[in-house]
């Protein structure tokens, strides 16, 4: 059979007689070695499989009867980095994770955010032993990688990220016989935290409280508009990522954040030419405009930049990438899946690590520890000769000083009772009310006159008041603040009780 093919190639002028004779003289034998040989595997084997399927759909059997030149979106630098870094990480994890049914697997997708062009795709550990493309076909729960859509829904609904939400044990009666008590990953609770802190640290309980306040239907709607096409079980557990998606689908949804509001569809083939150079098929990039308010996408991106710098995604930085980047980890129930979705203003990358048959990876398994470093190393190589650009703040986003103890905007010339303040981003139409826990009269005065007698002195206010009087005022402010917090907690509890009552009534009305 081999000689027949070589003879036909010689007769048709594809090889000369010397090449044909040399090839025909090569010895044929059965291979007895059990070692895997990947020397003949082309770069981007799983990527090529996707292209082949699309070409067969477009051209049918004619694909194999014609001489075609196919132009794809594959970027060699990104593809080489994706294959190398995923393989290296899986080898590092061998022996560190619990054994599963088959080898530990992984998948990588790198997309161009604006166009949807797929720059790199790895569908498994080894294409010579498994051609199953996990990057496009595997549907796995995404865990905490879903949380940004919860917070995007809250921002859209007018809840600012400075808003405080309670991080404390929660018990939810879903039905008469169904009680759910979500817990944080580390089993601890932090009391009142801002929405920004809750997302940066990926706190479960505050996210569930927030989703319930906004409405699970609204969360699902926001995710759907942003490109989440998978089926969603509209229950409170959706907030923690019970939806199952493929790595390619998740990367597609996150293009909405990277582009500040536009969802790009994935594209693999640019054009196809015949042997004479005539274009037979040409594709266009497709993006859905207005998938998300640009200001909402920008604020979520700003929070996810914090998540990479000092939250759950610091594995990106520890891997050596120092450029502009945002991202979110994802670890599913019982740690069966480890995810990381990262993005720059130009590209989005998704990393998944787990077993084909869902198996706990171990108590130490997290998306931040297993998947985030892979993304960081890929980006380090992709941006080795240039820097990632910055996101531009949309016109409708404003920045104000904030009292972290109340979540309210500080008035000019005012300070917090604890002498600690922060800044936060707000949508222009949803800036919270202002507050003045402590009027810093002396500092305000010197700021107005320019500090001509030596500049601002942070201790001036204390010296301007009698110490005992200042202490009494501080104690009164503290009691007032605690009272406001208790009142706010009662309002939240009353709201949740009323919403639970309405849900039960709706359920009885539907016969559920």
Could you give the topology of this structure?
Elements: H1 2-11, H2 17-24, H3 45-59, E1 68-72, H4 76-93, E2 105-112, E3 118-122, E4 140-141, H5 147-156, E5 164-167, E6 172-175, E7 178-180, E8 191-194, H6 195-200, H7 204-214, H8 216-225, E9 244-245, H9 247-258, E10 263-264, E11 269-274, E12 279-282, E13 287-288, H10 294-310, H11 315-318, E14 326-331, E15 337-343, E16 347-354, H12 367-370, H13 372-382, E17 397-402, E18 409-410, E19 414-415, E20 422-427, E21 434-435, E22 438-439, H14 441-449, H15 460-463, H16 467-509
Parallel strand pairs: 18-21
Antiparallel strand pairs: 1-11, 2-3, 2-16, 4-9, 5-8, 6-7, 10-13, 11-12, 14-15, 15-16, 17-20, 19-22
Helix pairs in contact: 1-2, 4-13, 5-7, 5-8, 5-10, 7-8
């Amino acid at each position: 059979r081999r000689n027949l093919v070589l003879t036909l190639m010689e007769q048709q002028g594809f090889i000369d007689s010397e090449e044909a004779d040399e090839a025909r003289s090569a010895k044929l034998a059965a291979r007895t070695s059990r070692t895997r040989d990947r020397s003949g595997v082309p770069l981007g084997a799983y990527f090529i499989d996707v292209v082949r399927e699309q070409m067969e759909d477009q051209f049918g059997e004619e694909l194999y009867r014609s001489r075609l030149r196919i132009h794809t979106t594959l970027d060699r630098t990104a593809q080489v980095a994706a294959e190398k870094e995923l393989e290296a990480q899986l080898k590092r994890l061998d022996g560190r994770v619990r054994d599963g049914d088959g080898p530990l697997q992984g998948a990588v997708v790198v997309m161009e955010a604006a166009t949807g062009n797929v720059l790199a795709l790895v569908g498994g550990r080894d294409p010579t032993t498994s051609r199953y493309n996990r990057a496009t076909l595997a549907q796995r729960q995404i865990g905490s990688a879903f949380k940004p859509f919860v917070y995007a829904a809250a921002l859209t609904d007018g809840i600012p990220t400075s808003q405080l939400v309670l991080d404390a044990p929660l018990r939810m009666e879903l039905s008469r016989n169904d009680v759910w008590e979500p817990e944080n990953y580390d089993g601890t609770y932090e009391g009142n935290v801002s929405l920004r802190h809750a997302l940066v640290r990926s706190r479960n309980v505050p996210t569930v409280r927030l989703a319930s306040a906004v409405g699970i239907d609204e969360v699902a709607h926001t995710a759907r508009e942003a490109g989440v096409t998978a089926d969603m079980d509209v229950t409170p557990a959706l907030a923690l990522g019970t939806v199952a998606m493929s790595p390619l689908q998740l990367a597609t949804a996150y293009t909405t954040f990277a582009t500040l509001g536009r969802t790009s569809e994935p594209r693999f083939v640019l054009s196809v030419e015949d042997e004479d150079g005539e274009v037979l098929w040409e594709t266009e990039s497709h993006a859905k405009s207005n998938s998300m308010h640009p200001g909402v996408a920008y604020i979520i991106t700003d929070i996810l930049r914090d998540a990479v710098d000092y939250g759950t995604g610091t594995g990106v930085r520890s891997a050596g990438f120092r450029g502009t980047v945002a991202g979110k980890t994802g670890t599913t129930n019982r740690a069966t899946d480890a995810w990381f979705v990262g993005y720059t203003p130009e590209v989005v990358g998704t990393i998944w690590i787990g077993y084909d048959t869902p198996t706990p990876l171990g108590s130490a398994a997290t998306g931040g520890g297993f998947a985030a470093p892979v993304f960081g190393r890929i980006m380090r190589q992709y941006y080795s000769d240039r820097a990632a650009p910055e996101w531009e703040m949309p016109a409708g986003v404003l920045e104000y000083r904030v009292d972290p103890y109340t979540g309210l905007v500080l008035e000019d010339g005012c300070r917090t009772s604890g002498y600690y303040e922060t800044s936060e981003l707000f949508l222009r139409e949803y800036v919270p009310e202002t507050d003045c826990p402590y009027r810093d009269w002396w500092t305000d005065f010197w700021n107005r006159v320019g500090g001509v007698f030596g500049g601002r002195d942070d201790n001036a206010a204390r010296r301007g008041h009698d110490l005992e009087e200042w202490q009494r005022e501080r104690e009164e402010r503290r009691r007032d603040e605690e009272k406001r917090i208790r009142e706010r907690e009662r309002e939240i509890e009353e709201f949740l009780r009323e919403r639970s009552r309405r849900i039960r009534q709706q359920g009885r009305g539907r016969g559920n």
